[in-house]
Design goal:
Blueprint (H helix, E strand, L loop, with lengths): L2 H4 L2 H6 L18 H16 L2 H15 L2 H11 L2 H10 L52
Helix pairs in contact: 3-6, 4-5
Length: 142
């Protein structure tokens, strides 16, 4: 192979390089856990970085305008920021369409008040020989 052919753009594209010579991603694997974690921490810190300046801004606004409503509004906006930051940071990347569902045998309906299964008739006993459960009536008096 000649040096001129190796440096040709066609050969670079054929081997999986972009126009600048950097390798092209050739896998559909999810990003590494550490990379996902860094991105989530970055999102959390970005959102939480607005909390302290908002509280300082509320104090400055009260000092300038002597209006507690403006300061209270700024503080009220900053109150849900930790909750929002945690929700966004804990969110996993969206599931890809080709990613399989893991738990397919889930019951379609769960009974609110599950009942015990009826015991099966034992071999050799007739239906009339089975002991009957006592019928309990709850009249609500205790």
């Amino acid at each position: 192979m000649t040096p001129q052919m190796w440096n040709s753009g066609a050969m670079k594209r054929e081997l999986g390089f972009d126009d600048e010579g950097r390798p092209v991603l050739i896998t559909a694997a999810a990003p590494a856990y550490e990379e996902q974690h860094r991105a989530r921490v970055r999102k959390y810190l970005t959102i939480m970085s607005f909390r302290i300046p908002a509280l300082i801004l509320a104090a400055v606004a009260y000092g300038i305008w002597h209006n507690g409503l403006i300061s209270l509004a700024i503080v009220a906006v900053s109150i849900p920021l930790p909750w929002i930051a945690v929700l966004i940071a804990n969110d996993r990347p969206p599931r890809r369409a080709e990613e399989p569902r893991r738990y397919e045998n889930a019951p379609r309906h769960t009974a609110l008040f599950p009942r015990a299964e009826r015991p099966a008739l034992e071999v050799g006993l007739s239906a009339t020989a089975q002991p009957r459960a006592a019928h309990v009536v709850d009249d609500g008096s205790r």
